[in-house]
Amino acid sequence: MKKITKLRICDVALLALTLIMLVSGIQLEADPRGERLWVWCHIALGSLYVGLLLWHISLHWRAGGPRRPAKMPISGLNRWLGVFFALMLISAIVATLHWIGSYVHATPGGIHGKIGFVFLLIGFIHLRKNFRFYKSIVR
């Protein structure tokens, strides 16, 4: 399978999962004492989301090695995406461990939710910037 085909599959899956994660995050913020099942679904979907994000990043790297080509500078937007991805991932781990220990939505989960919403907002800006790629998929 060609790299561009893999990228299209990854990006469409990532877009669909981004919308699902947004709805899931809003639901958990609106009802923080919600059912454990919804929290476990959010954790499972979030794990899949991280996997897709890592696949997306790897598809943009040079195929011959682990380093990004020097001629491809990282844009400011992508730097912020990286920063908020790291913050989101760290806060998700902390919030998950706290939730497993107490089954209570507390400060770590609230902080993770806010960071996640900022990450998704920056992600939508990234999507808008690269929207013509999605338009090429539809054709």
Provide an overview of this structure:
By secondary structure, the protein is an all-alpha fold. Helix content is 80%, strand content 0%. Helix 1 (3-30) runs antiparallel to helix 2 (36-60), helix 1 (3-30) runs antiparallel to helix 4 (107-129) and helix 3 packs antiparallel against helix 4. It is elongated, with a radius of gyration of 16 Å. 14% of the residues are buried.
Defining traits:
single chain; 139 residues; mainly alpha
Chart the SSEs and their pairings.
Layout: H1 3-30, H2 36-60, H3 76-102, H4 107-129, H5 131-138
Helix pairs in contact: 1-2, 1-4, 3-4
State the gist of this model.
The chain has 139 residues and is mainly α. The chain has helices spanning 3-30, 36-60, 76-102, 107-129, 131-138. 14% of the residues are buried.
As a whole number of angstroms, the C-alpha radius of gyration is 16 Å
Number of β-strand runs: 0
The oligomeric state of the chains shown is single chain
Order of helices and strands: HHHHH
On the 0-100 scale, what is the average pLDDT?
A: 86
Backbone shape: elongated
First-to-last CA distance: 19 Å
**Major sheet, described briefly?**
none
| Helical run tally | 5
Secondary structure: helix percent: over 70%
Strand content: under 5%
Global structural class: mainly alpha
